[in-house]
Amino acid sequence: MSNPEEPSEFSHDSAPTLQKNPPFPFFDLPSELRSKILSYLLCTDRRTIDLDPANHRTSTARLHLFLASKRFGYEAYHVFYARHTFRIFQTHGRFLGKRTEPLIARLPPYYRRALTSLELRLGPGWSDPPKPWYVSDRLGLEDCTAVRTLRVFVEVDPSSPVFKGFRLNRHFFTDFSGALLQGVMERLPALETVEFDAYPSVERDGALMTRLLEVTKKADMRIAWGSQREWGDSLADKLEKARLKAPRARGL
User: What is the pTM for the complete model shown?
Assistant: First the structure.
């Protein structure tokens, strides 16, 4: 029988004290390391952000980090908006209605000022462009003071003979796209580079690409090439890439 004067191992006096762990000193880390950590938390597999029904699964939960604290939210939104490319005009069929505003038009100016890259995707609605696809003050492109690169991705070129009989006329979408690109470039105050890429069916010397390149050169922008078509590679570069991709014979 235990001595009542000795504290039992289960008595109140001898119960272990639960110590609360202090918060991790995140803001004591160097800014480069904080940015790296935030990029792991915030960057999605889809590096291009657009109006999309899947956003609630891919992006919304990440954006809750903005609410952790005022300082954390400030650093987090700069990483999120700077590390993703935002599409100027929506392409998903659910959001092509006349009253649906593009995503960047919905962002407050301080989020638009954090953007560094925008995408203009050409091809959807080539016979009847979506009603929200026009350049105006509502887009807030003048707020995008950190955007240096505009990525232009061409899905189809309706001037191709394949589209004869389906298009309004040979030059309609070419004229529309050229004017759209020109309007976007004129409103981006710090734009330096326009990067072009396309699906395999689009020819670099076709009517649509020729017009887009003319408009870009006239605006005195630097032209770059995306990785999908490899238009910027020389013939020697393309032959070398083909050689590296080719399966090797056994024993060689």
Answer: 0.78
